[in-house]
Structures are given as C-alpha cells and as structure tokens.
Design brief:
Blueprint: H1 8-25, H2 30-39, H3 53-67, H4 73-84, H5 90-99, H6 107-121, H7 125-135, H8 138-146, H9 154-186, E1 192-194, E2 201-203
Antiparallel strand pairs: 1-2
C-alpha cells in the first residue's frame, strides 16, 4: 500500500488494501502491525488532515516505543478508523449501520466496529440496539435471550454480546479440535499395507503363509527339486 494522503475519499481504498497486506504479511507481533500502519501516515499529507497526520503517527510511535506496549489489531483498526474515517458524516455512519452484518467476523472485532459506527452516527440506544440485533449472528442472540442477558443500554448490551459471543466461539473451537482428535483415533485400519516403502500393496498376514517354490529352483546341497 501507498502512503495515505489524507484524502477522505481515498481512505477506504487505502485502508482496505492495508488490512489485506497485514493479513498476508502475518506479522508475529502487534508492534510490527502498528509500525507498518503508522509509518504510512508520515509522508506528505494533503487535505483535511494535513496538519495532524504526521503529528499523530509520530506521537503514537513514540508513546508505544517508550512503554513497549502496542494495541492489538482489533484496537488498531478501531483507532485508525475513528481517526481518519469521515466520522462527522452521520449519514455515512447510519448507512453503514443499516448494512453491516457479523457473518464470520469474530464477535470482539465486530462489536468494536459496530460501537464506533453507532457513536459516529449519533444513534440512540433504541435505534442502535435494533440495528445491532439485525446484524448479529442468530446463535449469539438466541443465547442472549435464553440467558436473559439483553440490556436496554447499548454499552451494556455490547458487553453482554461480546461475552456470550466470545464464549460460543471458544466452545466451538474446543469442540472442533476435540472432534478432529477423536475422529483420528476412530479411523479403522486398512487391510492392506506396503512393502518397506516400495509402494507395493501387500496383504496383512501374508508373511505367515508359505510361498510356492518355482520348479526351476534346485536344492543347494544336492541339486534336487525336493522343495516342491
């Protein structure tokens, strides 16, 4: 990705490509993710953010290097989008609330993104909760209602959804791993094997059966064919 030039109209394109790049790079530490993003905000900057972008990026780098702590990818995404996405455009944020869906996104990441959009749109708790319930995965909502954990305020409701969704995702990962392990144990053994890596099939137990001796093979001692 190129350096971000501060243009609001180019932010979505730049940020989308940057996130894809980070996924492909698969850096081992949060500091590498953060520094990759922040250093792309230090070049010549035009538009509405010309006066603040270099200062913001350099300040974040200095603070994190001094404390040796960096935000994870979820927190970094929320931070960047809150800083540079057109958050003053309430119509844009409301439009995003109306079309956003969790799908396969992790609950932690989705909650952070939805909360940012709701704040940017200036949505009331009632409206935001209505849109949130349209966007959440049904299995998470089902558990919320079964357990009686629905809240009337958005902040509290997000916390409950975050907890329930995270628990379901952790349970799913554990169950999938356990099922894969048990499946590997229960696989039946095959009735055939291979001769010492030659790739030639053999019947198990074949070595215990006497093999017929060809007629041209003679006894080593007397030259007779009494092996027959």
């Amino acid at each position: 990705p190129w350096e971000y030039d501060g243009s609001i109209s180019r932010f979505e394109e730049w940020w989308s490509k940057m996130k894809v790049y980070l996924q492909l790079a698969n850096f081992a530490t949060a500091s590498q993710d953060c520094l990759t993003v922040w250093t792309q905000l230090e070049g010549p900057v035009a538009g509405a953010y010309a006066h603040q972008t270099p200062t913001y990026a350099r300040a974040r780098i200095n603070v994190c290097q001094a404390s040796a702590t960096y935000p994870d990818m979820v927190a970094l995404e929320v931070e960047i989008e809150a800083k540079f996405r057109p958050i003053n455009n309430k119509d844009w944020a409301k439009a995003q609330l109306q079309k956003i869906h969790q799908g396969g996104t992790r609950t932690e990441e989705f909650m952070a993104k939805f909360g940012m959009l709701a704040m940017s749109a200036g949505a009331s708790d009632d409206y935001a909760i209505f849109m949130l319930e349209q966007a959440m995965r049904p299995d998470i909502l089902q558990q919320i209602f079964i357990q009686g954990r629905r809240k009337a305020d958005l902040t509290g409701y997000i916390a409950e959804l975050w907890a329930v969704g995270g628990a379901l995702e952790a349970a799913h990962m554990h169950t999938s791993a356990r099922f894969a392990f048990l499946s590997s144990l229960s696989c039946p053994s095959t009735s055939t094997g291979m001769f010492g890596g030659s790739g030639i099939p053999m019947e198990i137990g074949a070595t215990s059966m006497s093999q017929p001796i060809p007629s041209h093979i003679k006894c080593f001692s007397c030259g007779g064919n009494h092996f027959k």
